[in-house]
Amino acid sequence: MTIHPVDEHGEIRALAARVATEIYAPMAEDLDVNRRPIPLAERKRLGDLGFLGIAHPERFGGSGSPLSEALAVIEEFGKVCRPAAFQIFEANTGPAQVINHLGTEEQRERWLPDIIGGDRTMAVAISEPDAGSAATDMRTSAKPIDGGYLLNGTKRWISNGGEADQYLVYARLSDAPGAKGIGALVVDREMPGVGFGPPERLMGFRGIPSADVIFDNVQVPKENVVVPAGDFGRLFGVFSIERLGNSTMSLAIGQAALDRTIKYVEEREQFGKPLIEFQSVQVILADMVLQVEAARLLLQRAAATAGTGLPDPLQVSLAKCTANEMAKRVSDLAMQLHGGNGYTEEYGIERLHRDAHGWAIAGGTPTMQRIRIVSELLGRRFDQRR
Ligand SMILES: Cc1cc2nc3c(=O)[nH]c(=O)nc-3n(C[C@H](O)[C@H](O)[C@H](O)COP(=O)(O)OP(=O)(O)OC[C@H]3O[C@@H](n4cnc5c(N)ncnc54)[C@H](O)[C@@H]3O)c2cc1C
């Protein structure tokens, strides 16, 4: 019995599910326990299979497919190995999409083929110690110098920080206050003056390195400026794609928690019968299905507004808020129905729950999504500083 009679991406989803289950799922626990990313050879394999360029143009080695196809693949990997899914997420929905949508043709040619092939990775560096939800309070600055910019500042919570080869850094490129002074440039990890803090010890996200990225008088050539000061709105327009990737990771967590719980309550017996025979267990399971399906439909609707372009920000915030909160609740209910086994590392349920919390904070918290929902719906801007 399937709840999804029509899946327009059925073929690639099936391929992704097979590769994810056979090759990447067996390494997931080790990556989590030892807090390390997937090996380079496995990232390249994702590139060779075409999974890193699904939503990028064919002329750079991608497939030129709609975003929803990339999301289907991210979901299948996200169910069983989030460190591998992260690579697909980052390449298809992360900073590479800023290059794709806002970069020059020369910049696309310079950076996209390597990302799509799995040879190099690009992380996004927006948050700072004192600028999280209030991203426009960022202080990292790029001052004009001969031939380029001098970059100084510290970025925090950077996923793939210390591991990625390149960073799309949001920084103040002019003295204009607030969002008006912010633009974005690409920094190579080899550039003199680029440093990293110690690896963060996060609750979840353990196969996805995280660290501060520190810029100390880094000379960045002007050819690396992707978005000049004043185009912050366009930058965040493209960030909606990343939020859909994020929502998909949450959906994957919720779906995996649900799938595993169905199997478990059919097998596990107490009081002489399988747990599923108890009506209160059926009710909890139904609640899990309701929440997963609601998130899936909102996500599908948001992704449909994107096609091969940009999604509608209102639809994205509805999807992200719902999916993030669903993943936390559903993985919690899964842990409850697994009893003591849910609390062990062996069953992987606690890992789903730990990761669910991370995806809900990354990319803007559910609270901030709620503010955006009302703002978009009413066509009004609510200044959080006054
Ligand atoms: C796992 C993980 C991965 C991440 N990856 C990246 C990355 O790759 N790149 C990057 O740049 N950043 C990344 N981040 C940072 C992330 O974007 C920020 O953590 C997030 O935006 C929240 O900022 P903050 O942590 O400073 O919390 P704060 O902004 O200090 O918020 C703390 C709490 O206050 C609430 N709050 C804040 N402002 C308001 C308001 N106006 N009204 C009501 N409530 C409010 C928030 O909702 C939250 O509950 C990551 C974070 C995590 C946890």
Describe the structure.
Its cofactor is FAD. Pfam families: Acyl-CoA_dh_1, Acyl-CoA_dh_M, Acyl-CoA_dh_N. Residues 7-118 form the Acyl-CoA dehydrogenase/oxidase N-terminal domain. This protein has 386 residues and is an alpha+beta fold. The chain has 3 domains: 10-120, Butyryl-Coa Dehydrogenase, subunit A, domain 1 (Orthogonal Bundle), CATH 1.10.540; 123-230, Beta Barrel (Butyryl-CoA Dehydrogenase, subunit A, domain 2); 233-378, Butyryl-CoA Dehydrogenase, subunit A, domain 3, CATH 1.20.140.10. The protein is 51% helix and 15% strand. The protein contains 12 helices and 10 strands. It has helices at residues 10-33, 40-48, 67-80, 82-93, 95-102, 105-117, 232-267, 279-304, 313-337, 339-342, 349-361, 366-378, and strands at 122-125, 141-145, 148-159, 166-172, 182-188, 194-196, 210-221, 225-227, 269-270, 273-274. Strands 1-4-5-8 form a 4-stranded mixed β-sheet, with helices on one face. Strands 2-3-7-6 form a 4-stranded antiparallel β-sheet, with no helix packed on it. β2 and β3 form a beta hairpin. α3 (67-80) packs antiparallel against α4. The protein is globular. The mean pLDDT is 97. The structure holds flavin-adenine dinucleotide (FAD). Residues 123-127, 132-133, 157-159, 202, 205, 358, 361-365, 367-368, 384 line the site of flavin-adenine dinucleotide (FAD). Residues 123-127, 132-133, 157-159, 202, 205, 358, 361-365, 367-368, 384 line the site of flavin-adenine dinucleotide.
